[in-house]
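User: My instructor asked us to take a sequence, write out its structure as tokens, and then describe one feature of it. I'm not sure where to start. Here is the sequence I was given:
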Amino acid sequence: MPQSVLVLANQPERIEQLRTVLEFMECDPVVVPPEEVATRLHTDTTWLMLLVSGCAGDARDLKSLEALKDHDGQPLPVVLVGDEGEFGTLPEWVAPRLLRRLDYPPRITQWSDTLQRARHLVVNGVDLSGRVRLMLYQSLVGCNRHIQRIRDHIEQVAITDANVLILGETGTGKEVVARNIHNCSARQGKPFVAVNCGAIPGELLESELFGHEKGAFTGAISARPGRFELAQGGTLFLDEIGDMPVPMQVKLLRVLQERTFERVGSTRTLTTDARIIAATHRDLESAIEDGGFREDLYYRLNVFPIEVPSLKERIEDLPLLISELLRRMDAEGRGSVRLSPGALQVLARHQWPGNVRELANLMERLAIMHPGGTVEPMDLPRKFRDSLSEDELEEASEAVNPLMMAGGSAGSIPDEGLDLKEYMGELEMRLIRDALDKSGGVVAQAAKLLCMRRTTLVERMRKFGITRAEDAAES
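Assistant: Let's start with the prediction itself. The structure tokens for your sequence are:
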């Protein structure tokens, strides 16, 4: 088991504290200056991870991480230690290797979890090459804190075989979360098998899950493997588990406890090595009280719960979701369409009872109705407009395109369309500048106005090249 940790740091006090913690966790810390990282990587030592202290996170020291780019072995997990504002913008090829960021001073619980994850990745050769991480961020679109927490939870639980219970309203993307857990795990090359427990009649569900032998019941003209067999070595996703009949819940509980089952019509016992991920839109605790769900099965499934927020709880992610949905539609040849700033305003006020699924259906409908065109507020279906007053609709129709504000032009979308990513970047930059102006250049006050952490704001300012007034005053 690899125990050696390569430490890139340059502040004696912090180095000593990191060394003490790592030795306490039974690791072998090897502290090196930035210029020696490449040399150390190409020794015979099997490294557990590269730990970069925030105080070594300036551009010159991070340049030393280029040694990772050409490292021939299994991609080495990178752990950043320090406040997120200390690191600036990481090179693109470092991000896929980034295991996590730890607070400073270090907390033992964080360290223990991080070391366990690093050992699992290195020993099992799990893909850290960027494909999985990129897939994770592309499929789970958004910057909302709930989505960021779900990404963290996925990376934490994926390296285990623990049962996962995903909770959330219909259309929120519970299966997307389940697939990401599978794709980030050591089972990523094995089958991912999904079954909707609410869409299959109770009398057929046992055969669907466990399979059947020829002649087991009327219509069983041949033997057929069940979903547990098809998912062997991989992941079995039980969607809408709350709709499973109680008698079937008893049989599922036995499989989870003993990891064995029999096909319908057979006495031969089969074993299963499928990981179980379940999902439901129902309140299972209330169902238990009403006798509709078994309490013992609930606790078997609820080892690691993940709650997926509704779209109205993450409405700030709406532009990003629309951009990604339109990108996918265009890539798949299903048409393209653009939304005016006013149309975005109207959609942001909708309650979205169908969540992301409703949004995806709307984008497809708009692409059919307005192929290659620009959708204005009055082009949206009536249900999206009915909740707004005439004044609000008029205000949305006259919404100004921030990309044209600098030239003083008013709010019609350009004939060539709107780059939504650039649009949102410009909007974010202007809001940050406005907050800094209102706070007199005090970053902490500006962060409060924007409802974000100071360190997060500092990072966003670096991204856009915005100079802090307090920095300018010091120079």
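For the description part of your assignment, you could build on this observation: The chain has four domains: 4-125, 139-214+225-307, 312-398, 420-464. Try explaining in your own words what that tells you about the chain.
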